[in-house]
Amino acid sequence: MASISGMFSKKRFRRDTLVILGFLLLQFILGMTLNLFVSFPNIPVGSSDQTYFNAIFTTPFLLVHFIVGVGLLLGSIWLLIGAIKTKVGDISLVAVLGFISTLASYVSGFEFLLSGFQNNLFSFTMSIGFIVALLSYFRLYQLSSDLN
C-alpha cells in the first residue's frame, strides 16, 4: 500500500510502536506501584517549583514514572511524525489519537503533582489517557502491517 521513506521504514515503525507499547506497560506497573505502595510526599498546594521537583527526585518510583512519561511523550511525537510520513489516513488518525491521549496523561500527571497528590480527578484522567493510548498504539501496530 504505502511506503515510509528514510528513517521511517515499515520494520522500524512497527518496532517503535512495540517499544511504545512496552513502555506503556512499564508505566502502568510504575503507576500502580505508586498508587498502592508508595507514600507521596506531603506538599502544600502552591509550593515552590523546587518543592515539586524535590518530590520527584526524592521518590525513586515517582522519578522513574516521570522519566518514562517524558519518554512516552517523545515517542508518541516520533510515531506521529512517522505516521504522517506514511500518508495513510487511518494510520495518521490513530497516531494523532495516541499522541493526544499520551499528552493528556502527561499533563494530568503533572497537574496531579501540582495538586500536592490530592486531586484524584487528575489521577483518573491520567489512567483514561493511558487506556486510550494503549488501545491506539495497539491498533497502530496492527495497521502498520499493511505498509510496504
Can you offer a commentary on this structure?
With 148 residues, this protein is mainly alpha-helical. The protein has one domain (10-146). The protein is built from five helices and no strands. Helix 1 (10-37) runs antiparallel to helix 5. The radius of gyration is 17 Å and the shape is elongated.
In quaternary terms, these chains amount to: single chain
**What is the rounded distance between the termini?**
6 Å
What Rg is obtained from the alpha carbons, in whole angstroms? Answer: 17 Å
Could you tell me the strand content as a percent range?
under 5%
Return residue spans where pLDDT drops below 50 for at least 5 consecutive residues.
none
Helix content: over 70%
| SSE pattern | HHHHH
Shape: elongated
Q: pLDDT average, as an integer?
A: 91
Structural class: mainly alpha
Would you kindly provide a brief summary of this structure?
The chain has one domain. Helix content is about 80%, strand content about 0%. α1 (about 10-35) runs antiparallel to α5 (about 120-145) and α2 crosses α3.
List strands and helices in order, with pairings:
Elements: H1 10-37, H2 49-58, H3 60-86, H4 89-114, H5 120-143
Helix pairs in contact: 1-3, 1-5, 2-3, 3-4, 4-5
State the main characteristics:
mainly alpha; 148 residues
